[in-house]
Amino acid sequence: MKPVVVVHGGAGSIVKEYEEGYISGVSQAALKGYEALKNGSNALKAVEEAVIVMEDDPHFNAGYGSVLNQEGDIEMDAIIMDGKNLMSGAVSAVRCIANPITLARLVMEKTDHVLLTCKGASQFAKSQGIPEVPTAKLITERSRERWKKNLAPGSNPLKLQLGLGTVGAVAIDGEGNVACATSTGGISNKMVGRVGDTSCIGSGGYADNAIGAVSTTGDGESIMKVVLARLILYHMEQGKTPEEATDAGLDYMKTRVDGYGGAIVINHRGCLERDETMDIVSPPGGSTNSASKCQGLYQGGTEIA
Ligand SMILES: NC(=O)C[C@H](N)C(=O)O
C-alpha cells in the first residue's frame, strides 16, 4: 500500500495577505506527516504530527491562533481516530494547552473514555505532564481583532468567521491502516462551553480501515446535525467513490440544514478527495503520497517534490 497523507487548513474565503502563510503551513504539515509515514510511523502518528504543525502555526484556527469565545478566552476542540480498531479520543472546550490533538490521543490511549471536556480535560492534561500555556500566549492579534469586531452591534460573526481554518489530516500507511485528526478553536465569539462538531465522533472526523477516513471543517452545528464524516463514509460503504460520497454528504447538509463545510476523504485503497460546499474560494489543502507531493489553495494544487 502506498502511504498517503492529506491535510486541510479549513474551508472558506482566503484573505489575500495570508495566502502565502496558508500555503506554507499546509505544505509543512503535509511534509511532516509524509516524513512520519516514510520513517515507518503508522497513519495515526502521521495525522497527529501533521496537525501539530498547523496547531503551532498562527495562520490557522487551532492551538496558537485559535479564535476567541464570548469572554475573549480560548476553548479548543480536537479528535483523533484509529481506523484499525475504531479507537478514538477527543477533547472539547479545553484551555491553556498548545496541542489539543496530542491530548485527544492521550484520552484515546490512556483512558477508558472517548471524550473529555473542559475542567476534566485540563486536569487530565496536567496528570499527563502536558505543560500549561497561558491563554495570552495562544492569542494572536488577528483573533483579538476579529473578536472585537464581532462584539460591535450588528456584526455578523459567521461572515467574519469565513476563512478561519480548523485544521485536519487523514492518512493511510503501508499496512493499510487509516486515521484522521481534526483540531479547532471553534467559532469566533461562541458561547462559553460551546462544544462543536470537531470533538464529536462521526462529525469532526471518522476512520475505519474497512472504508476510509474523513476530516471535516465548516459550520459545526450543521455538521453535527448530519454527522457529516460518518455520512460520507456511509455513502462510500454503499459503493460511492470518495468524490461522489463527499458531494452527497455536503449536498445533503446544504439541502437539509443549509449548512456549509468541507472535507478531506481517503478510502481504504488510498484514493483521496477534497471538496467543499462554499463557492467563494477553495480551502488551503495539501496532500502527499509516495509518488508526488502537492499543495495549493485551489483544486489540483501544485507539485512541491
Ligand atoms: N472553522 C471550523 O471548521 C469551525 C468548526 N467546525 C466548529 O464549528 O467548531
Question: What can you tell me about this protein's structure?
Answer:
GO terms for molecular function: asparaginase activity; beta-aspartyl-peptidase activity. InterPro entries: ASRGL1_meta, Ntn_hydrolases_N, Peptidase_T2. The protein is α+β, with helices and mostly antiparallel strands and 305 residues long. The protein has one domain (4-304): Glutamine Phosphoribosylpyrophosphate, subunit 1, domain 1 (4-Layer Sandwich). The chain is built from ten helices and 13 strands. The chain has helices spanning 19-38, 43-55, 100-110, 118-127, 135-138, 141-151, 157-161, 220-226, 228-237, 242-257, and strands at 4-8, 76-82, 87-94, 115-117, 167-172, 178-184, 205-208, 212-218, 261-267, 272-276, 285-289, 293-296, 302-303. The strands form two sheets. A nine-stranded mixed sheet has the order 4-3-2-6-5-1-11-12-13. Strands 7-8-9-10 form a four-stranded antiparallel sheet. Helix 1 runs antiparallel to helix 2 (43-55) and helix 9 crosses helix 10. 59% of the residues are buried. Residues 278-296 have low confidence and may be disordered. The structure holds asparagine (ASN). Asparagine is lined by residues 10, 61, 164, 166, 184, 186-187, 196-198, 217-218, 220. The site of asparagine has 13 residues, from strand 8.
Q: Short summary of the structure?
A:
With 305 residues, the chain is α+β, with helices and mostly antiparallel strands. It is built from 10 helices and 13 strands. Helices cover 35% and strands 23% of the residues.
